[in-house]
Amino acid sequence: MTHTWKDDYSARIMKSAALPSAELVRGEGAYVWDSEGKRYLDFLGGIAVLSLGHAHPVLVAAVSEQIATLAHVSNYFATPPQLELAERLCRITGAGEQGRVYFCNSGAEAIEAAIKLSRRTGRPRILALNNSFHGRTMGSLSLTGKPALREPFEPLLPNVEHIESTVEALEAAMGPDVAALFVEPIKGEAGVIDLPDGYLEAAREITARHGALLILDEIQTGAGRTGAWFAFHKTGIEPDAIALAKGIGGGLPIGALVTFGAASDLLVAGQHGSTYGGNPLVTAAANAVLGEIERAGLVENAERRGNEIRAALVGLPLVEEVRGQGLLIGVGLSKPVAAAVVTSAAAEGLIVNAPNDTSIRLAPPLIIGDSEVAEFITTFTKALEANA
Fold first, then answer.
1. Strands laid side by side in the 319-325 sheet
2. How many CA atoms within 13 Å lie on the side-chain side of 66?
3. Phi, psi for 360 (deg, rounded to 5)
4. Which fold, 5-55+298-385?
5. Which of 61, 255, 270, 273 is deepest in the core (most CB within 10 A)?
6. Tens-digit pLDDT profile for residues 231-240
7. Is domain 60-295 in CATH 1.10.10.10, yes or no?
8. What pLDDT sits at residue 10?
């Protein structure tokens, strides 16, 4: 019997994830190739990570130059890429001169930093939404509004309350003992579920009125993915902090917590840290990614291409609902066949994923153009037809 990569994976990789469907060996632009030579159009983008697609020359050049210069120095020292990225994030988020940035290595770590930020208010309770996802570390998992994910690891962080995504539920739960409300502007892992109209605006008013922090999880929605630099920009509000990761690094592991206004003074020296956080290699990469998004108008491209895709999806077989913003798109199916659609799509050379039985998630690179959109519609339609 022939020995395969699946044998190696099963023998060596922790069984915390399912066996992958393919072994990918190369990528270019919006495409990847597996070890058998099959080409796929990547409309998942590493789950909203690959803002510039695969092997983008701007990112390749930045990483190559930086690793040949200075890769890591620890947080006892500053570096030019770190300082440049901190300034850039304060500018593009709108945090401005009062903004501050904490660098880490992932979205879950950014949420952990935000939890510690909220603890510094001296208030015990944290509110989060049902069906939300904030990560799998013990703190971020405590905020995740999916009981099936939390229960195997309980007891978790105390004083976390999950509420429905309604203004009424927030008003009822809010009080002088609430430190913070954590919110995803779009619930990505739930299937790209939009919040009710006006929810973020109401949440900002309610939390401000009660002296609680509003902390936004923009890990999946940030870096231009929704057709704005950050999803909250479409509402006109100003949060107290936002957690970032995924798309800001374009494939390199980096996370950040950006604070606004008075929240920037809550954490003081010695209260949090990260060995690798903000190292020159990943911050140089993030500067290259965010700089290219800005230079090439990819925020605007995400809005335009997202509108094209959503319009093309309406009326296709099985498509009952189209959700999301920009190039973070959820396709609600009329039957619980999402896993089968993903398999059929892969057979046609298209990568998408199924967050649940009735949802398909799309998060392609922000660089996609006419040809990629046309190819996606053709192949995705075939995958839907095969399971209608």
1. 319-325, 328-333, 359-362, 353-356
2. 24
3. -115, 135
4. Aspartate Aminotransferase, domain 1 (3.90.1150)
5. 255
6. 999 999 999 9
7. no
8. 93
| CA–CA gap between residue 384 and residue 317 (Å, rounded) | 6
Q: pLDDT tens digits, residue range 356-388?
A: 999 999 999 999 999 999 999 999 999 999 999
% of the chain with per-residue pLDDT over 90: 98
Would you please indicate which residues are annotated as catalytic (active-site) residues? 133, 217, 246
Task: Walk across the sheet containing 24-28 and list its strands.
Answer: 24-28, 31-34, 39-42, 350-351
CB 288 within 8 A of CB 62: yes
The predicted pLDDT at position 110 comes to 98
Which run of H or E residues covers position 47? Answer: helix 45-48
Other Cβ atoms within 10 Å of 343 Cβ, number = 16
- Residue pLDDT, tens place only, 279-324: 999 999 999 999 999 999 999 999 999 999 999 999 999 999 999 9
DSSP labels, 233-264: GGTT---SEEEE-GGGTBTB--EEEEE-GGGG
Structural domain boundaries of the chain?
5-55+298-385, 60-295
- pLDDT at position 226 is 98
